[in-house]
Amino acid sequence: MEDIVQFNKIAWNKKVDSKNKWTIPVTSEAIRSAQAGNWQVVLTPCKPVPPDWFPPMKGLDVLCLASGGGQQAPIFSAAGANVTSFDNSPKQLAQDKIVAGREGLRIKTIEGDMADLSIFDDDVFDLIFNPVSNCFIPELTPVWRECYRVLRSGGVLIVGFANPIEYCFDFKLSEQGIYQVKHSLPYSDLTSISEQERIENFGPDEPIEFSHSFEEQIGGQLKAGFHLTSFFEDYWENEKIKDYMPSFFATRAVKP
């Protein structure tokens, strides 16, 4: 297996080419609504982020972290924020550029690994918006450390992440709505299954994924210095597992 960052970059570029749901830019109507002060975004697949999770957007310095795709960054920009979109996939960033050009918005786009924000100075953002994406990197500690560093005091970190329990099930049986425990946690596409199994289960072009425990997700944010202020659960819309458990979680945390 080649470098994970490079592999997942190519995988997400291919998702843009195949018009994956999370690569489709927002409509002009959504931008006009945001400009009028009526907007919402998702952090997890279905449930909109509560409006009171966000500071007032006008003039806010926002980092959309691993959030390319022409979806959230343009909405924040239309709502009046100064937006930087930082993503591993240049084609995902291109989607943000397409909407910015189409709608006359200002979005700064930077390609990079979400675990390395060294391009940014300390204390430069008021809000970091990180939808479900940390399942594509092996370690979270660098992410929380870097997010804490680049946020100003009082800044807000909003994160969505996958339920780690789902990684323990047999993947083929899960497609049939049968949830049989097979893999121990933490799970890794690189070590929990063989390369042949990975290709058979997901195909050769799917991004490499890793499970992360609640200790890594929530405990890691707390250890980095954040104060957790809110939390919600979300479910897959059309997957049988929604009848049994939430598949996603979201946290709101503040840098004191």
C-alpha-based Rg, rounded: 18 Å
* Number of self-contained structural domains: 1
**What ranges have pLDDT less than 50 throughout 5 or more consecutive residues?**
none
Task: Please identify which CATH superfamily we are dealing with.
Answer: Vaccinia Virus protein VP39
Element pattern in H and E: HHEHEHEEHEHHHEE
What's the overall geometry?
A: globular
Q: What topology, given as strand order, has the largest sheet?
A: 3-2-1-4-5-7-6
| Residue-averaged pLDDT | 97
CATH architecture: 3-Layer(aba) Sandwich
CATH class: Alpha Beta
- Estimated helix fraction: 25-40%
Percent of sequence in beta strands: 15-25%
Which properties best describe this structure?
seven-stranded mixed β-sheet, alpha/beta, 256 residues, 8 helices, Rossmann fold, 19% strand, globular
Describe the 3D structure.
- With 256 residues, the protein is an alpha/beta fold.
- The chain has one domain (4-165, 209-254): Rossmann fold (3-Layer(aba) Sandwich).
- It has helices at residues 4-17, 28-35, 72-78, 90-103, 141-150, 171-174, 195-202, 214-224; strands at 61-65, 82-87, 107-111, 125-130, 151-162, 227-234, 248-254.
- A 7-stranded mixed sheet has the order 3-2-1-4-5-7-6, with helices on both faces.
- The longest helix is centred in the first third of the chain and has 14 residues, at 4-17.
- The termini are far apart.
- 41% of the residues are buried.
